[in-house]
Design a protein that fits this description.
The chain contains ten helices and 21 strands. The chain is of the alpha/beta class. The protein has a ten-stranded mixed β-sheet with strand order 2-1-21-18-17-16-4-19-20-3, covered by helices on one side. It has an eight-stranded parallel β-sheet with strand order 11-10-9-8-7-6-5-12. Strands 13-14-15 form a three-stranded mixed β-sheet. The longest helix has 18 residues. The protein is globular and about 70 Å long.
């Protein structure tokens, strides 16, 4: 008979990723009980991992608290026993809004990129990535994304406020990615994948650049893909889109319907802003089943939300919705922000799962931190989503089988009332109660 264990985070009881012990298992017999049935024979996508972004804002904020608190935060994210077991990360290629200002790696008008220099990243970002890898006991699987080409490469002459890449600089900009990847490799940080452009459909007050679907297709097909291969970096994956779900089908189709562009593309990255239309993510898989899907950014907007519970529920609901639609990994936005929800060079303040108060040297763990942990700690890289059927409409749920044979089932209750149900695996089952505004991970060792 299988062994069943439960880990719980509950708003009202104060439990946070709290082990509940073994559940009493029996043979299926509950009549009239709501059921969740697992089917390990039905399998879907495998998991790359869970993680967050190593922004300059995060790394700088951690440099402003005590070394002991900084080490605690790193452990609480990347150590599997003491923390969430993060294994993947995202880094910006030169500046983004969560940097201390606009910056690039080359001098103005250096189209040959002879002045390319990432030394700025050695101050805060690279040391943080190295320390995270030590805590994780392995290299972090890193995704790199640009927010804007240098101002002189763009039609509007600035890094902020949108603009487009000038046609005459497409080759130079493609080469820029490869120089970044090689420079990070020399620093001991392998880059697993890149995205073409962060949020290519949004004119932002911060670092941004606009591509139509056709422009992104042509840039990948004619410049970025061939340049990556020519520079010996064909092992580094390319992701397109890197923007919201609402337009994901249209944008993925614009690029992936072209075989010459598609051959360079690993998959589609996406964000959670604007829409929770998870089925749109699934449609991309249906259209292009040989390509991959990765959640590349999400955060709670509007500054710090200390102590709020809805932020954690937003993470849990979105992670489950996307995982059930073929998503292979989840990247939160800033790992850490300061007490203001920054720093951000255009005051686009946000929340993060961990807030570090640099005035009091205090670290705050938001509900989102614990909700993410219900996935990242127990659904490990290489895990495969399995079949799950349920007649319960008021709970969110997903199930995965890890490489060691263990099964992790995550069930979330956003309602104001508790819910009884029976969780079944073959002839075995457990009956349980999930309290209001809580999330549980059920761990099954057959």
């Amino acid at each position: 008979m299988a062994k069943w264990k439960k880990v719980l985070t509950s708003r009202d009881s104060g439990e946070r990723l709290a082990y509940q012990g073994e559940l009493a298992a029996g043979v299926n017999s509950a009549e009239g009980q709501a059921h969740i049935k697992l089917d390990p024979a039905r399998t879907y996508q495998s998991i790359v991992g869970f993680g967050g972004a190593f922004t300059e804002a995060t790394a700088y904020t951690l440099s402003r608290i005590s070394p002991e608190k900084r080490a605690e935060v790193i452990s609480k994210y990347f150590d599997l026993e003491q923390g969430l077991g993060y294994t993947i990360g995202r880094v910006h290629i030169h500046s983004c809004d969560f940097a201390l200002g606009n910056y690039t790696y080359v001098e103005d008008n250096d189209a040959e990129l002879k002045t390319f220099d990432i030394s700025r990243e050695r101050k805060w970002v690279l040391p943080l990535i190295h320390d995270a890898a030590k805590a994780a006991g392995q290299d972090i699987t890193m995704l790199a994304s640009p927010w804007s080409p240098p101002a002189w490469m763009k039609t509007n002459g600035e890094m902020n406020h949108g603009g487009q890449l000038k046609p005459e600089f497409r080759e130079a900009w493609a080469l820029y990615y490869t120089k970044f990847i090689k420079a990070f490799r020399e620093e001991g940080v392998p880059i697993w994948a890149i995205t073409v452009q962060n949020e290519p459909a949004a004119v932002q007050t911060w670092d941004s650049c606009i591509y139509s679907g056709e422009e992104e297709r042509d840039f990948v097909r004619d410049h970025l893909g061939p340049t990556m291969h020519r520079e010996g970096l064909e092992d580094v994956n390319i992701l397109i889109w890197d923007h919201n779900r609402d337009l994901i089908v249209e944008r993925a189709s614009a690029v992936l319907s072209d075989p010459e562009a598609a051959k360079y593309v690993w998959g589609t990255g996406f964000h959670w802003y604007v829409s929770e239309a998870f089925e749109e993510v699934g449609k991309v898989h249906e259209l292009f089943p040989d390509k991959h899907l990765l959640f590349t950014e999400g955060c709670q907007e509007g500054g710090v939300k200390l102590g709020e519970w809805f932020t954690g529920e937003r993470y849990g609901r979105n992670i489950i919705g996307d995982l059930n639609n073929w998503t292979e990994g989840y990247l939160d936005w800033n790992l850490v922000l300061d007490e203001t929800g920054g720093p951000n060079h255009v005051n686009n303040l946000c929340d993060a799962p961990i807030i570090a108060d640099t005035t009091t040297d205090t670290v705050h763990y938001n509900s989102s931190y614990y909700y993410i942990g219900h996935f990242s700690k127990y659904i490990r890289p290489g895990a495969v989503r399995i079949g799950l059927e349920s007649d319960i409409t008021n709970l969110y749920m997903t199930a995965f089988k890890n490489e060691d044979g263990s099964i992790a089932v995550v069930v979330q209750n956003e309602g104001d009332a508790g819910q009884d149900f029976t969780l079944e695996l073959g002839a075995d089952s457990v009956s349980d109660h999930l309290s209001a505004h809580s999330i549980a991970t059920y761990l099954i060792k057959p």
